[in-house]
Amino acid sequence: MASYGTVPATAPPVGVRRTRVSPMSDILLYFIALFIPPIPVFLKTGCGVDLLINILLWILGWIPGVIHAWWIISRSEGAM
């Protein structure tokens, strides 16, 4: 019989946050984003506003394009 008030073994302890490790494909996308940031953004989001924003940022400066691409990759981890 199950006793009431106990936490199942699969639940994380209170206050502990589970973090997911990026799969190998995301690590590869982070590396590609260092050189050509729009490619990983296109692979993650398709042809849309995020891609256009990234292309504009990349044209304005390499670092803003890379930061935006890394943000897009981390925001949608595992969604590939």
TrEMBL record:
UniProt subcellular location: Membrane
UniProt cross-references to InterPro entries, sorted A to Z: PMP3 (IPR000612)
GO cellular component: membrane
UniProt keyword terms in alphabetical order: Membrane, Transmembrane, Transmembrane helix
Membrane-spanning intervals of the chain: 27-43, 55-73
Main location: membrane
Similarity comment: family membership: Belongs to the UPF0057 (PMP3) family.
Protein name (record): Uncharacterized protein
Organism: Jaapia argillacea MUCL 33604
